[in-house]
Specification:
It contains three helices and twelve strands. By secondary structure, it is α/β, with parallel strands linked by helices. The protein has a single domain, classed as Ribonuclease Inhibitor (Leucine-rich repeat, LRR (right-handed beta-alpha superhelix)), CATH 3.80.10.
């Protein structure tokens, strides 16, 4: 090959390598994120193949969750994040997600037993696509009430699933600001006992006619089923 052609090809090859490394650097830096260390005990990190990252915390230590999310930010990670918090022994507060609010793609908070207010907890999670909440039976008999303020700021939310073993009441128009909602899953949520589940969904989400029966996670491509099964808050003959 003539020398005058060889030199430009070498330059192009070097440029391609440099650009590839620059594009991969944020994801590569996330590979250094390790869980279940001294300051992140109980939080495990999973690196799937689909250019995302999963952090799974057992919920025993608030500082462990804060530290692992701080490390995520410190490493400059900018890949979609899936965060699972299981059986949290601490109240969930809005500032818990400050370090990952732009990257958080899926949030699952499971086996909740603490009675707390849920107003404005997710107000900074404008990039969140999927939210899963599961409430266990609590020691208090008070119902957990979720209204419009409980879902403030979730402008990009597409999938919401709420399941409960304790009384959870969704107020009228509670989901009215979730303009991009595609899939709603409810199990055990208290309804007014008047009308069908479809009537109840329409009362809490005016755009219910646009809801789908299935939803595909755009990152993992996992397909979720959208089902609503409510229970009466008050017996019909009461």
């Amino acid at each position: 090959m003539p020398a005058q052609l060889l030199q430009p090809m070498i330059l192009l090859a070097v440029l391609f390598v440099l650009l590839s490394e620059c594009g991969a650097r944020p994801h590569h830096s996330c590979r250094r994120l390790a869980g279940n260390m001294l300051r992140t005990r109980g939080c495990h990190v999973v690196h799937p193949r689909n250019n995302s990252l999963t952090i799974d915390c057992d919920g025993k230590n608030l500082n462990s969750v804060k530290n692992i999310l701080q490390n995520f930010q410190n490493l400059g990670c900018n890949v979609p994040l899936k965060l699972h918090i299981n059986k949290p022994t601490f109240p969930i507060a809005a500032d818990l997600f400050n370090n990952v609010q732009k990257s958080l793609h899926r949030l699952e908070i499971l086996h909740l037993t603490l009675h707390q207010s849920w107003d404005n907890i997710f107000s900074n999670l404008g990039s969140l696509k999927i939210l899963v909440l599961h409430f266990e039976q609590t020691s208090r008999m008070d119902s957990i009430v979720l209204g419009t303020d409980s879902f403030n700021g979730l402008s990009e939310l597409e999938y919401l699933r709420i399941s409960t073993k304790t009384p959870v009441i969704l107020r009228k128009d509670a989901l009215k600001n979730l303009h991009k909602l595609k899939c709603l899953g409810l199990s055990g949520v208290a309804s007014s006992c008047e009308g069908s589940d479809a009537d109840f969904v329409k009362s809490i989400y005016p755009g219910s006619n646009s809801l789908k029966t299935h939803y595909e996670d755009p990152i993992s491509h996992r397909v979720e089923t959208c089902k609503v099964h409510t229970r009466c808050a008050v017996p019909k003959n009461a």
